[in-house]
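Exercise 7b. Backbone tokens:
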């Protein structure tokens, strides 16, 4: 079974567009779980433009399923720019305080609109190794966000990672242009190399109901994290039907 982890960042972004508490991020996450999702993902950024520090603690307090916190492990503490919003303590300090089931390391900068590349496992090895060792000491499963590359993906295991998350934007773009099968081959080769190295395999970014059935045939795929497309689909289909549709798209054909 491939696990579906729902990223709730877009719900927080909608809430933050007004000085209000709705939509309620925790309530939305719980409804996703009630409708069959296997986990919840958040990506808190230092400027807290969507998911906030308090959201992370509130979710950790109530969730009985996998909680995945993703972000740049080198993001430092940052004072809040908004009244009533807690200061950002730094990514690793937040993870230490919550100790989620999984932590996904992503090399995004503060000014990025969204994640747009994975770690360079050769260049960034010296920086990543102590971070991964710390997550292991805390008992937090680690995953490293990477671009598809069968030649280097195994390095994540040597650095101490438990899993890799394959950055799937290139696949999604190719699929939209009628070249999904050819793009999928690189991901298939990368997944096989990751599995051979002893890594678990996650995936995420721009996956949707159209391109997911093919991608769900990826060998050894354990989990997908989906937020933007699922949130948009829920506006049209309703949340129960949307979560059900994504779960169905993950079933083997």
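Sequence design result:
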């Amino acid at each position: 079974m491939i696990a579906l982890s729902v990223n709730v960042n877009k719900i927080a972004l909608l809430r933050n567009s007004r000085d209000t508490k709705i939509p309620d991020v925790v309530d939305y996450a719980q409804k996703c779980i009630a409708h069959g999702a296997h986990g919840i993902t958040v990506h808190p950024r230092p400027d807290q433009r969507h998911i906030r520090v308090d959201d992370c603690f509130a979710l950790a307090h109530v969730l009985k399923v996998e909680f995945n916190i993703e972000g740049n492990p080198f993001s430092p503490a940052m004072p809040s720019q908004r009244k009533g919003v807690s200061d950002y303590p730094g990514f690793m300090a937040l993870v230490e305080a919550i100790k989620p089931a999984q932590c996904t390391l992503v090399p995004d900068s503060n000014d990025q609109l969204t994640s747009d590349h994975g770690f360079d496992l050769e260049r960034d090895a010296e920086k990543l190794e102590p971070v991964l060792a710390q997550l292991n000491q805390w008992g937090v499963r680690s995953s490293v966000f990477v671009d598809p590359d069968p030649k280097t993906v195994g390095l994540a295991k040597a650095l101490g990672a438990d899993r890799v998350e394959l950055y799937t934007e290139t696949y999604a773009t190719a699929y939209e242009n009628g070249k999904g099968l050819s793009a999928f081959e690189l991901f298939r080769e990368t997944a096989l190399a990751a599995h051979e190295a002893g890594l678990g395999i996650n995936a995420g970014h721009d996956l949707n109901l159209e391109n997911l059935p093919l991608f769900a045939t990826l060998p050894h795929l354990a989990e997908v994290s989906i937020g933007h497309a699922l949130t948009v689909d829920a506006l049209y289909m309703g949340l129960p039907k949307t979560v059900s549709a994504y779960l169905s798209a993950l079933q083997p054909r």
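Instructor comment: The chain has a mean pLDDT of 95. The longest helix spans residues 180-197.
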